[in-house]
DNA sequence: CTGTTAGCGCCTTCAT
DNA sequence: ATGAAGGCGCTAACAG
């Protein structure tokens, strides 16, 4: 490997001169610079990224920590990453996708700091070791979604108006005459599930409805979204045929609901209305009619959180900001009024 | 920042002992190891990634070099990344998504090596500076798609059977009676466009058809895929109404074709058949009927290329392999026989 | 404007 | 099984 020293020697200058030619941190006479650059090219020299990072204590990389179903990206992740990358690109940062499992991380050999200047954490859980760890090491952090309570006043986050959105869904369905609604919520350990439940219940209580707790179910992380949607719907609709609407955590769960409805001979939206929290970008021939959704905007979440993180990385002192990205109801074909003649 | 030295001092041992506790490169007595680990936890110590990488000359990171439309990921990229990440995950590597523009890279300050052990390069162009550069620096490389000719015998790649697949499309359409076919190919600088053209033309010539060169068009990188599909279709079908089929580079181009057909009052597939090279995962209400496609398998491409790259990184000597992932025709609703009574 | 001297935090010989 | 010393390639602080 060819180093700065080789270039310096060949050009008849000192290492620091070569360093400064590349870093442009101090003025170098034109002739010297050109000579150095010329020799560097001849020798095919490139400054070593790691050595540089070690010296300046910056990596120019931000991390994105995802925990997906079997680490598979969904449409939402895709939009999100597009937002993140776009902003990284503008500001000259790179993105490290972090999907190393907790399990793997606990191997001693791998308990190392991450090569990043900051990190975006998606879908925090109630006792998230990722947050605890980064926070302890003073690594700039932006969380997507509501952080666990103990951290809520300590870090920046970008979130949707989940509570309010859930209330809106409830009001929307109630207004259309639905009284027995099945809510297939996110896994209980995700902070988002609590937010949604809160808004949802408040809306129901506001109109004096004694809502049966039983009809809010939380996905287990052991089940895939599709399975959860399918199995739960079959079971619940069999037990309680008066259910006329289902609200789901995401579009895959909704797909499971569609399949269940089809299997049970129920028509959407005539017999069953479906609404999903989703970025609305999933279309599949199976998803007919098109899914009414509370439309998350993955790309905006991605770009906003990245801006926030980079701002924090560059800032002198710690700053805290919260950004709420509103999600709105997008009515498509999967919801309808309840027929009076039931 | 707390370093190895601090831990060593607190534990009453030497730096190298601490180092070996973490790296497990040489045996350490149980008591010492536990004491060190204990103190490390108390002090919240984590080995520094950059320092470690500098010393051992490994990063544990692989790079993925993408050049998309405005750096936006498509469905294909998504599947591809899922394949890559899955393999990274299994083998304990991390993924760096590299979308820094050429333009940006040319700023002197940024002409630095990448912090990766190897790189996957997507969609090579005929004179790809990315390949040239990595190759010159002896960085393990896997290319997705056919590399430029000068490198074809020098590096590993994973490709689809593009030439053969294009021939199959041609035969398929000819067999259904189509004689005037519009081929909206990939940009000319992408090596894949040549591959496809080759197979396509051979198939046409085989049945003795003098095919008019004019009907193969290449997307300009200045146009978005959708615009290219739309504008070209409108123009070509206006000039030559006898065209009964369109083959497209990807599903977004196909979407443009659908829009054009709709605008011109043509029905798909009755008046116009459409086939796309696509991973078949794009569905949108606009894409009705479902698109017949030569189905790329992004996930397999991703995982195979990653396996190949990691194998190469770990290998003692340079190895070269080629992997061909077949793509097959998936007939859906957008293609039909030509009516005889034309 | 340029050179010299110390590190950055870890790993790696070579000792013991 | 453990220490001590030198080096990975670069930057930074101080000189001039």
Features:
elongated, 342 residues, DNA-binding, alpha/beta, homodimer, six-stranded mixed sheet, six-stranded parallel sheet
Write the layout of secondary structure elements.
Two copies of one chain form a homodimer.
Chain A: H1 4-11, H2 15-23, H3 30-43, H4 49-56, E1 61-65, H5 75-91, E2 94-98, H6 102-105, E3 118-122, H7 129-136, E4 141-144, E5 156-160, H8 162-175, E6 181-185, H9 191-206, E7 216-218, H10 225-239, E8 245-248, H11 251-263, E9 273-278, E10 292-295, H12 298-314, E11 322-325, E12 328-330
Parallel strand pairs in A: 1-2, 1-3, 3-4, 4-5, 5-11, 6-7, 6-8, 8-9, 9-10
Antiparallel strand pairs in A: 10-12
Helix pairs in contact in A: 1-2, 1-3, 5-12, 8-9, 10-11
Chain A binds a DNA duplex (16 and 16 nucleotides) through residues 1, 3-5, 13-17, 19-20, 23, 25-29, 32, 47-48, 50-57.
Q: Can you put this structure into words, describing what you see?
A:
The structure is a homodimer of 342-residue chains. The first copy, chain A, is of the alpha/beta class and 342 residues long. Chain A has twelve helices and twelve strands. In chain A, helix 5 packs parallel to helix 12 (298-314). Chains A and B meet through helix 2, helix 4, helix 5 and strand 2 of A and helix 2, helix 4, helix 5 and strand 2 of B. Chain A binds a DNA duplex (16 and 16 nucleotides) through helix 2 and helix 4.
